[in-house]
Design a protein that fits this description.
The protein has 308 residues and is mainly α. 75% of the residues lie in helices and 0% in strands. The chain has 11 helices and no strands. α1 runs antiparallel to α11 and α7 packs across α9. The longest helix has 38 residues.
């Protein structure tokens, strides 16, 4: 187990460097002059423009800038934003909100997706199963920003069950509606994965044997069906954590949440490479760690899996 974990960690190292290199290159190639956004609508003098370019190493080559960036990562110095504020401070202010939003969305999609998927899988071919499949296809087909504005209007404005915008109050109650919107598409995928896995496992020999031995239906479902159906679901959930944090750009914009989504969006608009690359680098690390945890969880879910 320890050797497998060490080997998986070693495999993540080239993935990390490759992802950050590609990311930095794409930000580096963004059109326009990053210093143009610092003038507040006014053109900067050549002397001030040159000073800014020297301060942020914009005159250096791509590989020189990337090397400076890498050295900063390993010393926890992510540089400064164009406003002069350390990027680390920006991340410390915005990341907790987005992490809370993503974790809430992950819990919502895991609970609703698995419960609805299990019921649909056990009643395969019935009216509930057919309704769930059609509804999930509709949710997947509608863009997330349409779902967000629709939920905001119906639940927030018409019914008054949730605040329309979050603003600075990032309590669990205020983030509940944005988290549900963020998780909505993933719920559709999870329930379909769970439904298909449960329907397949429910007809397996070991399930029929357990039923023939007189085991109760709840024990057959939880131990013999659900446990053997969770591997694709857990895989999706592990990969979805990073996707939820990245997908928060749209949700945070709709509900006016000051998280990393809005920060990255604003930084891309003005070409603020240090902030964009630093935040996305942390997202890459979260994604890689989540996938490592998922791999290690397989042995707990399915006792047939052993790491040599």
């Amino acid at each position: 187990m320890l050797w497998y974990t060490a080997r998986r960690i070693l495999q993540l190292i080239p993935v990390f460097f490759g992802a950050t290199l590609l990311l930095y290159f794409m930000v580096y190639k963004l059109p326009g002059d990053p210093t143009a956004a610092l003038g507040g609508g006014r053109p900067l003098t050549p002397a001030v423009r040159e000073q800014i370019r020297e301060q942020y190493h914009l005159n250096d080559s791509f590989f020189q800038q990337y090397w400076i960036y890498l050295k900063g990562i390993f010393t926890f110095d992510f540089g400064q934003s164009f406003s002069g504020r350390p990027v680390l401070d920006v991340m410390q202010q915005t990341f907790p909100t987005t992490i809370k939003l993503a974790v809430m969305a992950l819990i919502i999609e895991a609970v609703l997706g698995i419960v609805i998927g299990v019921i649909a899988g056990l009643r395969r071919g019935g009216w509930f199963d057919s309704t769930v499949l059609v509804a999930s296809l509709i949710v997947i087909a509608i863009p997330i920003f349409v779902l967000g504005f629709l939920a905001q209007f119906v639940i927030g404005v018409k019914w008054g069950l949730a605040p329309v915008t979050v603003g600075g109050n990032t309590s669990i109650q205020n983030l509940l509606l944005p988290a549900f919107v963020l998780a909505l598409v993933s719920i559709a995928y999870i329930l379909r994965l769970t439904r298909n896995s449960v329907a397949e496992v429910a007809g397996a020999d070991h399930v029929r044997t357990a039923t023939a031995k007189g085991l109760g239906r709840p024990r057959v479902v939880t131990v013999h069906i659900l446990r053997n159906s969770l591997i694709p679901v857990v895989t999706f959930l592990g990969a979805d954590l990073g996707a939820l944090m990245a997908g928060a750009v749209v949700t945070e914009g709709i509900f006016n949440i000051n998280g990393i989504g809005q920060t990255v969006f604003r930084s891309v608009q003005i070409g603020e490479a240090p902030t964009v690359v630093s935040i996305v680098t942390v997202l890459v690390l979260i994604y890689l760690i989540a996938n490592l945890v998922v791999d290690l969880l397989y042995a707990l879910i399915d006792p047939r899996i052993r790491y040599a």
